[in-house]
């Protein structure tokens, strides 16, 4: 009886709160979000919502797009080589869709979802990455999250760059592994973390090859040296490097000459390949393990044949796209040089990713002006994709842009920034990002 009374005393306050109608509701934050949002000062909300939640046209790749009947120059997609609009890639998808529909095969990979097309595709990916085996996923983030989630466990240590992609961090949390972060692209700090870690604890270093918001490349040579010295494994998510970096387009590891020193190569097909999905590539035993245990393989439908067929064609084209890669890099260097000459800060980018650092308000307002007044579609990136107050306009020049397009962008940005400063410079910067 005493135990029952004690339990009742613990439960009774909650019952009283429920009876009074004051019980907490997990949806309360959703109901208050729009009024209490912290991503913009109240007077800026309409512009932030117009830019950050604007509706893009379906055909939003290629250098020119149609937005409600208006022809606009666009620099926002990651279609580095123009593969999403390549006629051969589209023809491969259309042919497969006409033959099999848009959903076949039905089922998850371990059940009825694996067909010979998937296996042939994975053989080609492994050949491209020069590894024993590869595994493809229906989503790029699913490749990162699912692989990390099953490769690590509660007894393991994951040492991650502090700017590692969110899908990698999510996978680490699902795995239940111990997570330690090292300062971005700082091998000395990575070594301090490794040297202070239990030498008997299985460990894996997890980094991006190219960082999507800064455009910088991981110091993979130094990281590989530390991998060897401390007996760690190395997982590299090269979503933005594959197809772009290296003579053969095999990514940052090819560019830096360390392909054979990386344990697991990972990437996505939604950037330079212009389609959809993701992959890992590495030793056959590791790939087989992930195939059997990754939640994003076990519990999701297999990629449709039309997507796989299109990506196989794109992979074939990317491997031989030296001219397109050369033009992409020429355009990137030209654009970044123009921006620096005009006084814009693009950070320490080493790739075509071009982050124009304007602060939260500046990025959003300038993007809005460029869209409305100059017919240029660019994207502003603010928290949580970057730290509060560090907003950027992220520009992606592609192999399909012409120099005149790049020059028009820079001239227009100058005018948009001048308009923003004239209109808003007198207002306190603190209002730019409430809570920054």
Strand order of the largest sheet: 3-9-8-7-6-4-5
**Which outline best applies?**
globular
> Quick check: average pLDDT?
91
Strand content: 5-15%
What proportion of the residues is helical, as a percent range? 40-55%
Radius of gyration: 24 Å
Q: What is the rounded distance between the termini?
A: 54 Å
- Taking pLDDT < 50 over at least 5 consecutive residues as the criterion, the unreliable ranges are 1-9, 428-436
DSSP summary: helix tally: 17
Strand count, sense and closure of the main sheet? 7 strands, mixed
Description of the molecule:
By secondary structure, this protein is an alpha/beta fold. The protein has 2 domains: 42-81 and 322-432, Alpha-Beta Complex (Aspartate Aminotransferase, domain 1); 86-319, Aspartate Aminotransferase, domain 2 (3-Layer(aba) Sandwich), CATH 3.40.640.10. Helix content is 46%, strand content 13%. The chain has 17 helices and 13 strands. It has helices at residues 2-19, 28-36, 45-52, 87-100, 109-113, 116-129, 140-151, 166-175, 187-195, 220-230, 252-256, 284-293, 295-298, 305-319, 322-341, 359-374, 403-424, and strands spanning 64-67, 70-74, 133-137, 157-161, 178-182, 203-208, 233-237, 264-268, 278-282, 354-357, 376-377, 379-381, 392-395. Strand 6 (203-208), helix 10 and strand 7 form a beta-alpha-beta unit. Mean pLDDT is 91; it is low at 1-9 and 428-436.
How would the blueprint of this fold be written?
Layout: H1 2-19, H2 28-36, H3 45-52, E1 64-67, E2 70-74, H4 87-100, H5 109-113, H6 116-129, E3 133-137, H7 140-151, E4 157-161, H8 166-175, E5 178-182, H9 187-195, E6 203-208, H10 220-230, E7 233-237, H11 252-256, E8 264-268, E9 278-282, H12 284-293, H13 295-298, H14 305-319, H15 322-341, E10 354-357, H16 359-374, E11 376-377, E12 379-381, E13 392-395, H17 403-424
